[in-house]
Each structure stands twice: as C-alpha cells, then as structure tokens.
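To: structure desk
From: M.T.
Subject: fold request, one chain
Message: Could you run this one when you get a chance? Sequence is below, nothing fancy, just the single chain.
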Amino acid sequence: MAAVSPELEPPYAEAPLSQRLSRRAVEYARLMRLDRPVGTWLLLWPALWALWIAGAGRPDPRVLTVFVLGVIVMRAAGCVINDFVDRDIDPYVRRTRDRPLAARRVTPLEALVLFAVLIAMALILVTRLDALTVKLACLGALLTISYPFVKRFFPLPQLYLGISFGGWSVPMAFAAQTGVLPRVAWVLYIAAVIWAAIYDTIYAMVDREDDLKIGVKSSAILFADMDRLLIGVMQLMMVYALLLVGRSMHYGPWYRGGVIAAGVLFAWQQWLIRKRDPAGCLRAFLNNQYVGLAVFIGLLLQYVYAE
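Reply: Done. Structure tokens follow.
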C-alpha cells in the first residue's frame, strides 16, 4: 500500500507567505482538476449539443455563457467532493495517490470550504436563468453530491455518474433555452448518459487491479472479461440515440457525418483497449473528447449549411 505524505513538510511550512499562498493555489487548482481539462470537455459537449439544438443553431449568448461557466464550476465542485469522500481510498490507487487530499497536502476542512464556495458560485450563475432551470439545477446539484456516496454500494457507478452528472446539463439547457423539455431533450439526455458510462467504464479499466484489491466497485469489475463487448454495445446504443435525435430534428448529412465520425472514433477506442492495458485504456478514455467534438461539429455544420 502506498505511503501517505505528511500533511505539511518543514520547507513548506517555513516558506515565505507569498510562496505558501502560491503553493496553496496550485494545490486547490489540482484538487479542482483545472490542470486536467479533458473532464470539463466531456461534461461540456452534451451541454453544447443541447444548446445548439434547443436554440436552432443560435443559442442565447447569455445562456451559453452561464452554461459554459457553470459546467466548469460544477465539474470542479464534483471533483472536490469526490476526492473528499475518497480521501482514505485514493492513497492506495496508483493513479490517484498523488491527489492533494490523498497526499494530505490539502486538509478535509479546506476541501469542504472550497466545495461550498464552488457550489455558491454555481447557484449565483444559475439564478440568472428561469425558474424551471433553477429547479433542475438544484436537483442536479443533489445528484452530483450523492454520486461519491452511491458509488460505494451501487455496482454500476459509471452509469450513475452519467445520470447524475454527465448528462444532466442536457435537460437544463433545453429548459433555459426554450422553457420546455421536449422528447428530443430526453433522447439526447439518454445518449449523454450512455456516453458517460462508456468513457468512465474505460477509465475504470485503468484502475481495475487496484480497485479489486481495495474493494471499490466499478462497471469494469462487474463486466469482467465481457467489458469490451458491453462497451461496444453501449457505443452502438449511443450512436443510435444520436441518430434518433437527428431524425427527430430532420437533420441532414452534415449531422449524420458527425455521428459517423464519432462511431469511427469508438472503433478506434475498441482497438486501443483490445489488450486491456492501462496505458491503452487511458488513451481510449482521453479520445472521447474528440467524440464530443465530432458530434458538435456535425451540428454546427448542419445549421451553417442547412437549406
């Protein structure tokens, strides 16, 4: 098991105030994963899909700004509360042992204060929108807070991540842009939920050996040697859901091209995880940011070149 670093090393404690503040800021940034923007993109793409569809290619600039900032803030808040709950588990997982809370470079109290500040910022942002969106945002915040606890006993935490965090921006975006939640919003939400389950299952494959040792639940463990097959099934389900969205909105070849490009990237991910080695699985996980981009480019071109 990995050794846990001391809470404050002497050189750190004796450093000048400006240097100490700078180091704390760096640790807080790492705690919020600001140094790893891929996670933000994975949450932002579904919100952008929804805003472009709900806004017929021209989302309200104010709503767009609130959502972009809101996704950044809520992703940071989700990372903080997740690390707070997992602070005694992360030291024993190779990928997470150097996180600020796991390495005891940030105290639990500091993490809770930072989380409260981020949630307050998110609430300030969402109050700029309509009442329905505010209600959905409050429900989304509760779901986000519940995720680190639910994953302790739920055998498919990656699915719950999609339900609670990965796709909740979709109905919120439709509510903010149109004031209603049409059927296409829920189809897109299902696509986003499935996508989160896909990329987080691939991510969980990176930690499978460590998770088995310490008893952490994940879909990668539950799926066992059927992991690639079931990931492939989910990939097909997501592509089909996106095609249903296109059919409902009467989109043409530009959008379908974006979905096809996403499907090609999924095939590449299957190749990357074929040996189930951690490095290949990590590359496949990171590749998902381009899946979201491909679908968005298809949407963008659909509205730019629509007849």
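Reply (cont.): The two ends are 61 Å apart (CA to CA). Let me know if you need anything else for the meeting.
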